[in-house]
Amino acid sequence: MGQQAVKILKLDTDKLIQMLNEALSEEWLAYYQYWIGARVMEGPMRSEVEPELLIHADQELNHAVMVVDRIVQLGGTPVLNPAQWVKLSKCKYEEPSDPYVEMILKQNLDAERCAIKRYQDLAEFTYGKDHSTHQIAINILNEELEHEEEIEAWIADLERMREDFKKMRM
Q1: Is the dihedral of CA 83, 24, 101, 53 positive or negative?
Q2: Which bin fits 147, alpha (ψ -120 to 50), beta or left (φ > 0)?
Q3: What global pTM score does this model have?
Q4: For 80, 82, 110, 159, which has the most beta carbons within 10 A of its beta carbon?
């Protein structure tokens, strides 16, 4: 633990570490949701969407690395048992029981919107009080916003394809 890392904080360090452990749990669940969803996905645009979901999964894993590094830097203990992830996460993990591409995308969209809320809360909590965690939260928030936009675009593309198909059948 860096002594100055904690000394310069102007906030409740225990609360911050709790919030970061919740975020860490959510990142692991998001990683797996993207990764497994990409693997089992079926339907139109699968070949375009799958590699992008795997990139999103890698980015979620990178978020977990940033968060765990910050927890350790603050002298905290990161979540050590994966069984705790679901308990600590405020974002739900949605099992891809329906492998249709649109369902996978909608599940991931819900997870992204929850992550956006998480990092917005972390950014607000640390603003002006913990510049390092604030910067991490803003960087991750920006990637989560990009993920949301990409997923919304894919869902819109699928809807357009469905509408075009209906027009062709008339």
Answers
A1: negative
A2: alpha
A3: 0.92
A4: 110
Q: What is the pLDDT of residue 10?
A: 87
CB neighbourhood size of 9 (10 A): 17
Three-class secondary structure assignment of 14-79: HHHHHHHHHHHHHHHHHHHHHHHHHHHCECCCHHHHHHHHHHHHHHHHHHHHHHHHHHHHCCCCCC
Residue 100's DSSP bridge partners are: 42
Q: Is 127 left (phi over 0), alpha (psi -120 to 50) or beta?
A: beta
pLDDT digits (tens, 9 = 90+) for 76-129: 999 999 999 999 999 999 999 999 999 999 999 999 999 999 999 999 999 999
Strand, coil or helix: 100: strand
